[in-house]
Design goal:
Length: 68
């Protein structure tokens, strides 16, 4: 999360595309290679992209009041 209110672009990462491990900023645990997840890219700060578990990102959008 960038800490700003910039809009984000969210890209799904399919298991066959997930070749590396990342740390999810939502739960601070590892996203293992081969795990479906999303990449969240702040529109105006692409260097701040983060890999999130799908469920953690959903909870983050609900926390922000963005989920429909």
């Amino acid at each position: 999360m960038s800490g700003t209110l910039d809009p984000e672009i969210v890209y799904p990462v399919q298991p066959y595309q997930a070749a590396k491990a990342y740390v999810c900023p939502g739960c601070e645990t590892t996203i293992a290679p081969g795990t479906y997840h999303v990449v969240v890219v702040p529109e105006f700060e692409p260097d701040l992209r983060r890999h999130w578990h799908h469920g953690c990102w959903y909870q983050e959008t609900r926390r922000r009041g963005e989920a429909s």
